[in-house]
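From the pipeline queue, job 12 of 40. The input is one protein chain; the requested action is below.

Action: predict structure.
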Amino acid sequence: MKHKAAITLVKDKLPEKRYKHSKRVAETAIEMAKIYGGDANKCFLAGILHDFSKYDELGEMYQYVTNYKLDPELLSFKAEVLHGPVAAVKMREEHGILDEEIYQAIMNHTTGRSHMSLNEKIIYVADYIEPKRSQPGVDQIRDIVFEEKNLDLAIYEITKANVLHLVWKDRAVYHRTVECLNYYNMVKE
């Protein structure tokens, strides 16, 4: 898919605020790809498309999980987790994006996973640190990414913050997120 077509696809579907977020994620991902040696084109496409299913109806998301034989454990979660896997499937099955790295980057941007590819890591982090994000600790993570240049440490810190937030809210934590936390805790240095 060409960049212009991806932008149009997202702009036509998402609310303006989410579209602008997606553009910032794509731009941040390109900047990170230059630093870390990622594929700028793949990072742009995954970044602009990552939230394509963010506002899909929950029942429809569950249908995609079932129909495309995604991890059945996903049926225990809501849109915050599901929109990544559903968007990945929609991009592959309905929009012809067959590149596995783009697919995995979109698929796992909500949960992370152990052993992510470089482009997956970039999207996972770019979504968290894009310039308009202001959650506690984001500036520290930006420093880790752009000053220390330690992508694995950034993933660990993001995942730790996400898990702590979910535990604090008494929410379930998806098993791949726990695996991501444990894996990047071991490889972060």
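Job complete. The mean pLDDT is 97.
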